[in-house]
Design the sequence.
């Protein structure tokens, strides 16, 4: 089994954040002699956070106003991320799909082409999105727990709410960047 840097960091960073939260909630002091066990626990917690982030993806799409693949294929982008060839891409995808294909099916066709190209940019954008999603989930859970336990202390709101918004927005942008890259690679393969 081989691990990539992403596999390790995407588990350890959110895992350590959750571990620190659990230590704070349990009022357990950080013990520097427990670094190896803490690392193992953090890796486990990070994998749990990765799973939760995948499960929460539909909720995130709801908060973003819909799936980026659907919105970009309909010509709707967000600030800083636009896809100007939506009509061309959608027409080509519809020609390959079954009649009355939904946007998920159309985007899966584009993903199949993009993944077959082994374009490192597509993989990089996908990795960046997955990491942003697990960070969003970690910050969301941490914010809910900390504000829930300290709901009368305005400082938690003042610090955690902007952080949550920034991480939420960045995750949304990362997904749009990834989706746009998949569609651009699809058009490139189709020589358009």
Sequence:
């Amino acid at each position: 089994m081989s691990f990539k840097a992403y596999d390790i960091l995407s588990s350890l960073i959110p895992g350590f954040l959750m571990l620190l939260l659990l230590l704070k909630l349990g009022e357990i002091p950080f013990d520097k002699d427990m670094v190896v066990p803490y690392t193992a626990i953090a890796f486990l917690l990070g994998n749990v956070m990765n799973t939760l982030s995948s499960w929460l993806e539909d909720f995130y799409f709801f908060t973003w106003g819909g799936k980026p693949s659907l919105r970009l294929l309909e010509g709707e982008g967000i600030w800083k991320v636009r896809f100007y060839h939506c009509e061309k891409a959608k027409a080509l995808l519809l020609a390959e799909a079954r009649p009355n294909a939904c946007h998920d099916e159309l985007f899966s066709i584009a993903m199949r082409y993009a993944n077959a190209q082994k374009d490192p940019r597509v993989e990089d954008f996908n990795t960046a999105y997955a990491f942003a999603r697990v960070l969003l989930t970690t910050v969301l859970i941490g914010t809910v727990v900390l504000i829930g336990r300290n709901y009368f202390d305005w400082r938690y709101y003042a610090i955690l709410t902007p952080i949550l918004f920034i991480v939420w927005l960045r995750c949304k942008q990362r997904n749009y960047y990834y989706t746009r890259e998949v569609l651009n690679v699809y058009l490139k393969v189709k020589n358009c």
